[in-house]
Amino acid sequence: MRMPGHARTSAALLAVGLSLTACGEDAPLDVPGGEVVGGAAAPDERVTEDLSVKAVLLAFPDDGLWAEGDDVPLYAAIANTGEEPARLVDVRGENFADARLIGEDGTDGPLEVAEDDNLYLEPDGPPSVVLVDVDRSLRSSQSIPVTFVFEDAGEVTIEAPVAPESPADGDFDTPQDPTPDDD
């Protein structure tokens, strides 16, 4: 059985995050200034004590390159641990002309994050966010700053990298339940 695209990508992002957090903090760098071992799979920032934007990535382009003028889908998770809902009213940045916020019902407009809940933005959404008319080409691991604007909580700017090509993009079968039958 083949998983839907967004489920495969979400599973791959989770696997990347788990594998990165399993790396030891004591591992020395081979080359000063090289890649730091460990850390989050994608950038995340706290907006308020109760609101965070996590795992921000630009979708991997089908042909490996987002060209100038392309519309680029965004991945993110918005966590609200508060007792009041939060509303994402805008996404903006200097490297794209506009952003489309697409709600659960498929219409454009603000996105609500319910109290004590998470909102997951995925290219296969809704809900989703699409950066319109990027001003330069982007490859995997290149990034642009993206500002998330919330109605009452303020805003936060996060460096959003293009996701690496995911193993979830290939075909694979859903694992079977390893629990034996009690026959």
From TrEMBL:
Q: Which residues form a coiled coil?
A: none
Q: Which residues form the signal peptide?
A: 1-24
* Disordered: annotated segments: 159-183
What keywords is this UniProt entry annotated with?
A: Signal
Q: Which Pfam families match?
A: PCuAC
Q: Does the keyword Signal apply?
A: yes
InterPro entries reported in the protein's UniProt record = LpqE-like (IPR007410), PCuAC_sf (IPR036182)
Give me the stretches of Acidic residues compositional bias. Answer: 168-183
Protein name per Swiss-Prot or TrEMBL: Copper(I)-binding protein
Question: Lineage in the entry?
Answer: Bacteria, Bacillati, Actinomycetota, Actinomycetes, Geodermatophilales
